[in-house]
Amino acid sequence: MSNNKRSFFNEIGFKPTIEKLVDLTAKLYLEDDNPWVVGYSGGKDSSACLQLMWRALEKIKSQNKPIKPLHVITTDTLVENPVVATWVKTSLDLLRNKAKDKGLPIFPSLLTPNIEETFWVNLIGKGYPAPNTKFRWCTERMKIRPSDRFLRKISAESGESVLVIGTRKAESANRAISIRKFEKEATRENFQKHINLLNVVSYLPIKDWTNDDVWLYLLQEPSPWGINNKDLLSMYQGATDGGECPLVVDTSTPSCGDSRFGCWVCTLVKQDKSMSAMVQNDSEKSWMEPLLQLRNDLTEKDFDKREFRRLKGHVQLMGPKDDETTVPGPYTKTSREEWLRKLLQAQNKIRNNNQLPKDLKKIQLINQDELNQIRKIWFYDKLETDDILPKICETEVKGEYVFEPLEDNHVFDHDILKILKETCGDDEMIFEIARGLLETERKHFKSNRRTGLFDEFENIFRKSFYKDKTDAIEYAKQRKKIKNQGSKELPLENN
Fold it and tell me: Which of 257, 269, 441, 464 is the residue whose CA sits 20 to 30 A from 5?
């Protein structure tokens, strides 16, 4: 990203430019009754947008004109960088209180993913591998859907809503192209088409600003709700490689805009430079080291920790023709249990660090609701009826979490499951089939109608009829060969 672009304030000066933009925003805000929503992350761009919106509402109020509600939404993925998450929550509290004091109808909302869509429920519960560029399952579930649900609800009540976001052309060439594309497709001047929702339009008040323009505005115009923008600058500085965060830069000097704040578990980047820089630049943030280590563990090659079958049981081949192997599936039972242990151990290490800020002393890397959901997935969906999750939690963090009994009529407790496994010997597939059939029978035992029982039996056999991984590969090769020959008489379909 180039940092020597012409400032947006050059043409008429800083204060006249800001005043002109506030006037325009106020005018647009009064044009209709549609609700407006500010997307606020706590970062520099969204902070600048929110400040402009606050000033616009102040101007409207000074003119004694009625002010419709302004919604401010923030998405907490539950795996946000703890420093940034604390900053955002503090900012929202200040915003809520200050707006009430000033008589401004500004209403913050902290959004979270549905429990079945959180990071740890998917990774530890369902066994999804850590996200990568080919399987980026996290962004849609954890970031986009919560805000889309809010926007759909509010748009349904009014017909259309306006989303105010801090997207800028200077962020990247791709971002600039995207902005121009949606500008052309817009049906209203000063607005652009929303990328996902038909009844939402986007307003980008700082789309033509540079990084330095953003920082100049934030440092020249203090936050009206009381958050310290200099502290925000320091946070960016701490997350920048080398600890530098200049406002006037040459082409060789990185800007604070290059710092990435987001999920501490993010594996979509090779290295979490922002968290690494925080730990390196500030000894008071040494407590974050366990987070960084766990995140790095998630990026390691993990084929040995995953099933040779895909999530639904089918086998997919990959690799050179003469050396084909299976596409790895979800994490194995043992691996999922180990990830849970590592997560709870990291939580303990952080809490025991003397540098941990007081307001984070009770930090939870995974909450009770997530653990309850993971437990249900393991027990009911994966038929892991040893119900080991409460035991893991009690071992690693005694007394931290409380679990209610799932049900009284287990087919297996841990001891009986051990006997069954010993009876089946080393044949993992036979053990899997036996456990699955017995648990499925139990589930249907008290039902008046046992609809679907035999379909479930069939699915169990489809998933586990291989002898082992080698047998699965040979089967997949045979099936692929027959399919390529155009035969309709395929081996047992395993999809």
Answer: 269
